[in-house]
Amino acid sequence: MSQPILRPKVLIADDEKVIADSLAMILNQTGFEARAVYSCANALELASAFRPDLLISDVLMSDTNGVDAAIEMRALLPELQVFLLSGQTGTADMIAKSPARDLGFEVLTKPVHPQDLLRKLHSALPMKNVA
Q1: pLDDT (tens digit per residue) in 66-87
Q2: Residue 2 and residue 92: Cα distance in Å, rounded?
Q3: Among positive and negative, which fits the CA dihedral 47, 26, 106, 40?
Q4: C-alpha count within 13 angstroms, C-beta hemisphere, residue 114
Q5: Comparing 40 with 131, which gets the higher pLDDT?
Q6: CB-facing half-sphere around the CA of 50: CA atoms within 13 A
Q7: 4 — pLDDT class (breaks 50, 70, 90)
Q8: Residue 76 counted as domain residue
Q9: What phi-psi label fits residue 12: left (phi over 0), alpha (psi between -120 and 50 degrees) or beta?
Q10: Confidence band (pLDDT; 50, 70, 90) for 129?
Q11: What's the total number of domains in the chain?
């Protein structure tokens, strides 16, 4: 079993800045080290340097598809846990038909309640000392 992660790193990618910044603020206040970016291109750029444990990504962003960016990040970081946010119905079906279907990505519906998100994140990683 892997070692507990004391302050898990979370990369949040959403072109809705209010959502990305709000999630980052909540996570930073609850024991995570979170960074928010507003495009898939920025997420891919930051991923190699930041090396997140978790990715929370919007599915549909202005520059590209968040699912494709998540697949690319998982290739770079094989242990990356991925949560996809979507306000659209049918996202789970779309992912089931994509190359992401076998990667274990979890789809969360927007708006996601912070307590629900925190429960999901806590269950995704071996953690210790995370509020």
Answers
A1: 889 999 999 999 999 999 998 7
A2: 29
A3: negative
A4: 12
A5: 40
A6: 23
A7: low
A8: yes
A9: beta
A10: very low
A11: 1
Average confidence (pLDDT) over 3-21: 89
Strand order in the sheet with 106-109: 33-37, 9-13, 54-58, 81-86, 106-109
Beta strands in 54-122 (DSSP E): 54-58, 81-86, 106-109
User: Whole domain around residue 84: which residue ranges?
Assistant: 9-124
Residue 2 pLDDT grade (very low, low, confident, very high; cuts 50, 70, 90): low
In a domain, 15, yes or no: yes
Q: State how far the Cα of 98 lies from the Cα of 117, in Å rounded to an integer.
A: 24
Q: Bigger pLDDT: 65 or 1?
A: 65
**Bridge partners, residue 60, by sequence:** 65
- Whether residue 4 lies inside any domain: the answer is no
Instruction: Give the pTM.
Output: 0.87
Which CATH number covers residue 66? 3.40.50.2300
Distances (CA, A) of 5 to 31, 61, 71, 91, 129: 11, 30, 23, 30, 9
- Residue 84's nearest CA partner among 31, 127, 120 is 120
